[in-house]
Amino acid sequence: MDAIILLTLTGLGLAALYFLVASGLSLVFGLADVLNFAHGLFLGVGAYATWWAAGNLPGAGPDGLGFVVAVAFGVAAGTLMAVLVELVLIRPLYSRTIEQVLVTVGLSLAGVALLQATWGADARPFPRPAWTREVTSIFGAQVPNGGLLLIVAATLVLGAILAFLRWTRYGLIIRAGVENREMVTALGIDVRKAFTLVFAIGGAAAALAGALGSVYFGTVSPQQGGSLLIFAFIVVVIGGMGSVVGSAYAAVAVGLLQQFVNYYGTSGLGDICVVALLAVVLLLRPQGIAGKAVTA
Amino acid sequence: MSEPVLTVEDLSVRIAGLHILQGVSFTVAPTGVTVLLGRNGVGKTTTLRAVVGLTPRNGEVRGTVRMGAQSLLSQRTHRLVRGGLGYVPEDRCVFAGLTVAENLRLAERRGTTPAYDRVFALFPELDRRSRQRAGSLSGGQQQMLAIGRVLLNDNRLLLVDEPTKGLAPKVVTEVAEVLERVAESVPVLLVEQNLAVVRRLARDAVVLAAGRVAWTGDAQELLLETALTRSLLGVGSAESHQPAGPGADHQPAGQRTAAASALEDGS
């Protein structure tokens, strides 16, 4: 029983990490039809900016309020990076899919190379509050606090995104744009501003994933974003392009499946099962769990 | 004669290598309904979409389109619409996942007061169904929502693409009534296949054939000429419940272009 609770909560922690990366990817693809392979870079920028801020930024640090400031700095850096990528690189290439893929893949590779050149290729210890290294006993299971932090953060982000989509003017524009972008334009709305906004939201969520994921793993490395991005793409496809709620369901399914199969089967089998799940969903429901409509 | 609200000159549209429109020229009067007619695939929808700036990115548009003195082709769609060019697309295109109220709220613009009174006076059904998802409305209700959305703001010209397509006869009549009332205050460029609706609404007609203007003139005169409507539209005016009468032999005063002659020669 302890093992099941532990696996469930660590699986949900992993799901939270996937969701934070996938929610932005899903919104960007659903609204702007951009397959952003550079999304993992936003995660890397968030992680490294948090790591740097904790050691160098006045007021920031590895513990207490200082850590909150460091994470806020990391999220701000990831958001700024995402906005710049949209404005400078993606905006001239809307409706040119192949060029978008080339640019975002190139940017992703260049970004990782830049992080490696600046701070080295090896993983570095991540400064984190002492309590995140400890565990909390839940029904007898010793659950890492870092995982619980991820679950709480992802739940708050999910609630915030849904509230934004449901209650704000730009949320309404994004929901409509995911259904029919052209018609949004035909109502007199400059949909490009919404594109920038979803990139900013996605960049912020990915950067938060970078910071809190590094807390969970205890290290930061240049390749972190790329490896998580693969599973985030799987989550987006299973959940349905453009659906934040679908991404949340899919992230939970993928995280739990991975944890349980890796534990009860052999290590690595969980990853294969996730790919098999993707294949099954594509065969039975190609539009994903929640289709293309954003539900708020 | 008063200045036209819309002037289209030598408009050509090529999409994915296909010449959809080839030098189309016509004007839209500042009052009433001007109808754009033609068989399926002659370029009616392409014309409206080119005017409102919605030609696909792989398309190429040439020519001149002016609303008053303002040139339209160089501007982006949302600016044209904010400038008073209302567009009701083919197949309604309401946002199915949003409620009726949300669909209407999307059309609101900063700095202006949305004319909900006007919309709900024309479509009281929309007020009653404001919390219903647009995707669960009937085709007629969706059409009313699509038109209502555009009427929330003041327009200088409305482009309306096949508003009665796929609707039940009773709903077609309701939509025609609404458009008739709308056209009292704003000029309309209408694409329509239903000749009974055309007869009721249209004052001027522009007939397209194979991407060119085949005929322009008085719409009612055109509909009186059974042979001409059959050759240009593929349907005789009698088939659209036009009562036979002395007008059957009447010669329409509209201008028939070389494209119309070529069409007849080929048929």
Strands across the major sheet of chain B, in which order?
A: 6-7-8-3-9-10-11
SSE succession of chain B: EEEHEEHEHHHHEHEHEEHHEH
- Based on CA atoms alone, the radius of gyration of chain A comes out at 19 Å
Examine the coordinates and then state which fold CATH places here, giving the name of the CATH topology of chain B.
Answer: Rossmann fold
Output the number of helix runs of chain A. Answer: 10
CATH fold field value of chain A: ABC transporter involved in vitamin B12 uptake, BtuC
What's the number of domains of chain B?
1
- Report the top-level CATH class of chain A: Mainly Alpha
Total number of strands of chain B: 11
Strand content of chain B: 25-35%
Annotation, overall tally of beta strands of chain A: 4
Class of secondary structure makeup of chain A? mainly alpha
Number of domains of chain A: 1
SSE ordering of chain A? HHHHEEEHHHEHHH
> Low-confidence segments of chain B, ≥5 residues, pLDDT <50?
239-251
The multimeric state of the shown protein is heterodimer
Low-confidence region ranges of chain A: none
CATH architecture of chain A: Orthogonal Bundle
Q: Overall mean pLDDT score of chain A?
A: 92
Q: Mind describing the biggest β-sheet of chain B?
A: 7 strands, mixed
